[in-house]
Amino acid sequence: KNQRVCHVAVQLEMGSLWEEFNRLGTEMIVTKAGRRMFPTFQVKLSGLDPLADYVLLMDFVPLDDKRYRWGPGHLRPKMDEWAIVSFDKLKLTNNLLDDNGHIILNSMHRYQPRFHVVFVDPRRDSERFAHENFKSFSFPETQFMAVTAYQNHRITQLKIASNPFAKGFRDCEPEAW
Amino acid sequence: KNQRVCHVAVQLEMGSLWEEFNRLGTEMIVTKAGRRMFPTFQVKLSGLDPLADYVLLMDFVPLDDKRYRWGPGHLRPKMDEWAIVSFDKLKLTNNLLDDNGHIILNSMHRYQPRFHVVFVDPRRDSERFAHENFKSFSFPETQFMAVTAYQNHRITQLKIASNPFAKGFRDCEPEAW
DNA sequence: CCCTTTTCACCTAGGTGGTAAGAT
DNA sequence: ATCTTACCACCTAGGTGAAAAGGG
């Protein structure tokens, strides 16, 4: 592995929330127009070379068949700072003809989100080193099933309890979250 | 001038709205937190080399003293397409200590917005060619005075009539805009 | 007196799950 | 029967000028 990526470490943000969902069997809604993930996939990066350029992206590995990618763009990390990368604008869709750059997933199938840090190699023959210029990370607690409607009512209730945009469906508990 | 920029042409969007404001003497609000411009500075680009990289930015030339810049980032133009660049997220502030990347302007002073297309020269000694790698554009009808409160009531009325976010202050006319 | 700051009601824009109807 | 779609009320988030208060 290239020196620019071999020391890179990644920590999942909101890990306890992910685990809480994972215990119930996380589900993510997919729609024609595209739907955000909740919890948001968010990681804290360290060990980046402040002078190097990186491309950060995600893909979704089916615990069945195909694979899809999504990237939030370039990053040149700031010195003395743990870069936090949020995929909050990433959207999931079940529309095979989607042209909005959303992730196309198969409803009722399970997926493992994966995160990749790719060093942008400035050398002319960088293709030759492509295999050593990236590092990938998987967090098992972020696995989920793509659905068009929630299958498990307890997942629905946890989403309503923890997602600010679903506050309209809460019954009570003004301070619990 | 470099071939990558010498054929670049730019057309101001919403020209007639800018002219309507200009006839009254355009004013732009500046606040501590930063305020958007309205009308938005928006241009249509043509003559770009589809294989080249560009940086697009704006600055504000005082019809008195200092100068400030703001850039929306890189652009690699799509073939067969007139790229439209919108500076709708640009904000103006009068806070000299601003660290949000907003444009710091002097209230009660007049400014001329200016647009620059900069070719990202891949050559090692690109600094030597910096003077020939950009092209700049000024539209006199986009001049304005920075203010903390509107000075001309007719400007206020035109803003209310044409800015969707000010719809709450309209008296009538559901179809006029 | 002139200019700036703060707060506010009223918008735009868009992210939620519920619900009922539609599709297979 | 099972999964999908379209629409909805209800939120978050944030862009408006008005008005009143603050500052020199």
TrEMBL record, chains A, B:
What cellular component GO annotations does this protein have? chromatin; nucleus
Q: Name one GO molecular function term.
A: RNA polymerase II cis-regulatory region sequence-specific DNA binding
Pfam families per UniProt: T-box
Primary location recorded for the protein, binned into one broad class? nucleus
Record-linked SUPFAM superfamilies: p53-like transcription factors
Q: What is the lineage of its organism?
A: Eukaryota, Metazoa, Chordata, Craniata, Vertebrata
Query: Which terms does the UniProt entry file under GO BP?
Result: cell fate specification; positive regulation of DNA-templated transcription
Q: Which UniProt keywords apply?
A: DNA-binding, Nucleus, Transcription, Transcription regulation
| InterPro entries tied to this protein | p53-like_TF_DNA-bd_sf (IPR008967), T-box_DNA-bd (IPR046360), T-box_sf (IPR036960), TF_T-box (IPR001699), TF_T-box_CS (IPR018186)
Species this chain originates from: Tinamus guttatus (White-throated tinamou)
Instruction: List localization entries.
Output: Nucleus
Q: Start and end of every T-box domain? A: 12-171
Protein name (database record): T-box transcription factor TBX1
Superkingdom per UniProt: Eukaryota
